[in-house]
Amino acid sequence: MLNQKPEDVRHITCIGAGPIGGGWAAHYLAQGYLVTSYLHDASEHKALMRLIENAWVSLEEIGLVDGASLDNFSWTTDLAKATEKAEFIQESIPEILELKQTLYQKLGEIVDPQVVIASSTSGLSMTDIQVNCATPKRTVVAHPFNPPYLLPLVEMIGGERTAPETLAWTEQFYKIAGKSPLVMKKEVPGFIATRLQEAIWREALHMVANGEATVEQIDQAVVNGPGPRWALMGPCEIFHVGGGEGGMAYCLDQFGPALKLPWTRLIAPELTDELRNAMVDGCVEMTQGKDFATLSRKMNDGLVEIAKMKRQK
Amino acid sequence: MLNQKPEDVRHITCIGAGPIGGGWAAHYLAQGYLVTSYLHDASEHKALMRLIENAWVSLEEIGLVDGASLDNFSWTTDLAKATEKAEFIQESIPEILELKQTLYQKLGEIVDPQVVIASSTSGLSMTDIQVNCATPKRTVVAHPFNPPYLLPLVEMIGGERTAPETLAWTEQFYKIAGKSPLVMKKEVPGFIATRLQEAIWREALHMVANGEATVEQIDQAVVNGPGPRWALMGPCEIFHVGGGEGGMAYCLDQFGPALKLPWTRLIAPELTDELRNAMVDGCVEMTQGKDFATLSRKMNDGLVEIAKMKRQK
After folding, report:
1. Tell me: the pLDDT tens digits for B171-230?
2. Band (A185; pLDDT cuts 50, 70, 90)
3. Interface pTM (ipTM) of the complex?
4. Is the separation of the CB atoms in A250 and A283 below 8 Å?
5. With an 8 Å Cβ cutoff, are A267 and B265 in contact?
6. How many angstroms away from the CA of B305 is the closest CA of chain A?
7. pLDDT tens, A24-38?
8. DSSP A132
9. Based on the number of CB atoms within 10 Å of its own CB, is A202 exposed (0-12), middle (13-18) or buried (19 or more)?
10. Is B232 on the interface with A (CB under 8 A)?
11. Fewer CB atoms near the end CB (10 Å): N or C, chain A?
12. Are B143 and B121 in contact (CB under 8 A)?
């Protein structure tokens, strides 16, 4: 609720009972919220409870916040009843524009306009979703990564009629609710994470299609090679560390020409001075100017933990 | 040595004292081998020892094999002396073709032709490297991922004059020596892992160049989103699990059209029946037909461990 502080939210409504909607419900329960799920049909209840109980095993292992309990969960197939106490709504219905438009039209009428409605959509634009909503200011896209109760990322962007304060409020809310929100600068298909993931996926498909690698080899290459690093650092920081004392600047100046090599089917952008500096400055800022020894120790310590974890299996 | 079993190798020579050559030396020492490093110049000795001692902190933490000791390390700037007791040679000199050709010519004369010489090259072809080598059969590319003492991947391929038995022997040797070798089916620039990594990297550069994301947002998107999964499973198995009970088949049949969406600048290959089936069969084979519940539990348990590890920091 925009007239309420994000930290005062107690009651969350999750609309949709699939893996994303159910995953969100589990996440919010583990964070100590009172959660009501709206189900399209009562027959979905069984699968939803199985999903939440399965998630709970993992969530207990990570550690619940004080007061978190499955007893704080309720469900209904009555939309008005599902949303009457809502102080925040997380919508995760199927990715069909007409369905979402109809839902947001209805929610726009029955839900207090001060309550934020966040859509888990991975491919639709809020500008399109909010088109028939009478109270669009408080609607926003908040795309999680599956499973939402184990991966913290939430990519956010508003639609044309979303109020900037809605983005600010929701970003703050997600931080309090144990997520890592990322407010996009521009609307771009696939947001950031899906685009990066899709680039790998398409290159992998090319390799299988060309007989250059098997499915198993692709997976082995990732899990035994760059994969463990990506759990710890993103591609930019990895090269910033890979550049040694010289950091990203050394990397780009030394290996810039490699961008012309056919090391993937993806053509690289031109490495202009502007792009070079954006990468270098971005790395220094992101790492708060930490030196190579510190960053390298952080990376190695993390890889040691992952190696030990894998050895135990 | 091809006339000796891979499990009987005791003495390894590492040629080159940079991050890769030094990283290999540390790895082999931790595996209990007697290691001799060849240094181009005695002045490199200090930096090499710092690198090995730094690696040793991580290696002790993971756990050394019985008998592993830094006392098993020696070094020299005399190539003949460095290689006289070698039962396996790991070469990691700079990526300059003429340098490698000259070295392999020399090694081809002074080293017992039964001793395998493996090159850490990431970009050169063994066909080119072995061109002046009188005994090329035992030469092979074995490309590690940095740091070689923490990431197990070794991508292998022979040159035109490499004997198939050299690949088989070396693959076996690496398995014994604690690495995860991957024998490539075809020579392809960047092997597998670097191509996949490069696809992500280029897409990231495009996003920064277009003002679609900052450096920090790209890294956050990976670390809080797909990154932790890649430490546990490759892109194929992730979608195989993501497809639920239906596995990869469901994924491709349902989301195949997404390959046409502009979710990255990388154009996807056409999803022919052949490619579809190669992906589906490959996943079933790789996972030994394990069901969704088992694979999903493996993924969640791993993500829980990574989440706990990150929370402790």
Report:
1. 999 999 999 999 998 889 999 999 999 999 999 999 999 999 999 999 999 999 999 999
2. confident
3. 0.94
4. no
5. yes
6. 7
7. 999 999 999 999 999
8. G
9. buried
10. yes
11. C
12. yes
Distance from A82 to chain B by nearest Cα, in Å? 28
A202/B307 CB distance under 8 A:
no
Whether the CB of B223 is below 8 Å from some CB of chain A: the reply is yes
DSSP-derived letter for residue A150 is T
> What's the full length of chain B, in residues?
313
pLDDT, chain B, mean = 94
Cα B230 to Cα B252: distance, rounded to the nearest angstrom: 20
CB B234 within 8 A of CB A223: yes
3-state secondary structure of B154: strand
Helix (H, G, I), strand (E, B) or coil at A165: helix
Residue A124 contacts B, CB cutoff 8 Å: no
Beta strands in B82-178 (DSSP E): 88-91, 116-119, 139-144, 153-158
- Where do the domains of chain B lie? 6-183, 225-311
Q: B260 and chain A: CB distance < 8 Å anywhere?
A: no
How large a percentage of chain A has pLDDT more than 70? Answer: 99
**Would the CA dihedral through A6, A10, A15, A20 be positive or negative?**
positive
Point out which residues pair with A89 in neighbouring strands. Answer: A13, A117
Residue reference for tokens 């309990």: A69
Chain A residues within an 8 Å CB radius of B216: 236, 282, 285-286
Nearest chain B residue to A238 by CA: give it: B219
Determine the average pLDDT of the residues in B32-43.
97
Q: Is A230 exposed, middle or buried (0-12, 13-18, 19+ CB in 10 A)?
A: buried
B146 at the A interface (CB within 8 A)? yes
Burial of A20 (0-12, 13-18, 19+ CB in 10 A): buried
User: Does position A1 have pLDDT exceeding 70, yes or no?
Assistant: no
Nearest-10 crossing angle of helices A235-242, B215-224: 110
Identity of the residue in B201, B224, B304 whose CB atom sits nearest the CB atom of A62: B304
CATH number belonging to the domain at B6-183, selected among 3.40.30.10, 3.10.20.30, 3.40.50.720, 2.60.40.1580: 3.40.50.720
Q: Count, in order, helices (H) and strands (E) of chain A.
A: 13, 8
d(CA B189, CA B195): 8
Distance from the Cα of B301 to chain A's closest Cα (Å) equals 7
